[in-house]
Structure formats: C-alpha cells, structure tokens
Fold this sequence. Notes:
- With 215 residues, the protein is an alpha+beta fold.
- 57% of the residues lie in helices and 16% in strands.
- It has seven helices and eight strands, in the order αββααααααββββββ.
- β6 and β7 form a beta hairpin.
- α6 (72-129) packs antiparallel against α7 (139-157).
- 4% of the residues are buried.
Amino acid sequence: MNKDKERKKWETPDDNGEAISGGDEEVKAAEAAPEGVQEEEGQLEEGESKDPASSDEDTDPEAKNKSSKKDPKDIQIEDLQDRLKRQMAEFDNFRKRTEKEKSAMYEVGARDIIEKILPVLDNFERGLAAVPEDLKGGSFAEGVEMIYKQFIKTLEDAGVEAIEAVGQQFNPDLHNAVMHIDDEAYGENEISQELQKGYKYRGTVVRHSMVQVAN
C-alpha cells in the first residue's frame, strides 16, 4: 500500500492528462539507499564540496607544525643579521663618542698652550711700546714689529682673537674691572682704559680683559 502511494508521487500528468511514471527503479533505488548516503548526496547537490586534502590538514596537527616551522638556516641568518646591526650601531656610537672626546682634549690642550703664549705676546707689545721715537723708523724696530704682526696673524688663523674693550660697555663675561673712575666724558659702565688685553679661542674666553670702568 505504501509503495503504491509513493509511486503516485512520482506520477505526473502529461499534456493529454495521462500519468507518466518515474519508474519503479527510481523508487526502489531511493528506498534501498542508506539515510547517511542520501543526506550526503543532498549536501553535495546544494553546492558544498568536500576536500579530502583540506580536511586532513585541519585534523592533522603534525601538518600544521610542519607548515609553521621555519628553516633553521633562515633562523640563523636572521640572528646573524640582528647581531651585525647591533655591532654596527655600537661601533657608530663608539666612533662618535671617541671623536667628541678627541675634540674636547684638543680644545683643552690648545687653550693650555694659548694661555702660556699670551704672556710672550704681552712682552712683544711692551717692547714695541718702549722703543724710543727716534728709533721707531729703524730697521731693528721694524723687524720686531713685523715679527709681532706675524705672531698675531698666526694666532688668528688658529682661532685666537682679541676681545674689544675700550669704548665698549662693561661685560663681566669678557672683562675684568680692576679700576673705576668718574668721568663725564664717558658713558655709564663704559670702559675707559685697557690695562691688559683679553683673548678668546673659538668663541670661548681664554683670558678676560683687565680694564678700567668709568661712572
């Protein structure tokens, strides 16, 4: 009885009204197929495909580990590259620090030598100032003055320069006031006389000017 009902489901009327049967073979095949196979076929018909290779990879942890592991050679190369970068950075810092220390040592040494030379320069100036008027045009006095000018030029080329004093406003960073006078001819805190020249080396004071300040 049940089989007759199922056969009726497969029968469809044609244009003339006669029933066309799907056939007993299709019905029997559908009845004989297991339920799991029928469901799987239905899922495949709906567009879902089953990839055996992908399912094996998802379920196999060893396959995942193999794909995630790096080649030991690549790891060693990355480690060596990292070490090389670190050593290059350390060497660059060491080079900059050494250059800075050398420059500072050079500055200290140069300042020490200049401080020792300045008294010699002072004596040159005192000697030229003490030459009598009748001998200033002589060959000896001119030779000493030429040596003095050469000495000054050499110091200037090395970065030594004299500090301006007379007529300038007193600046404690550049001048050392040892005398004070009241004179209306000068402005307030104006330097009226320079007792000893001061010098700078590359912008840094080596010796302050010894001056007299007015008002």
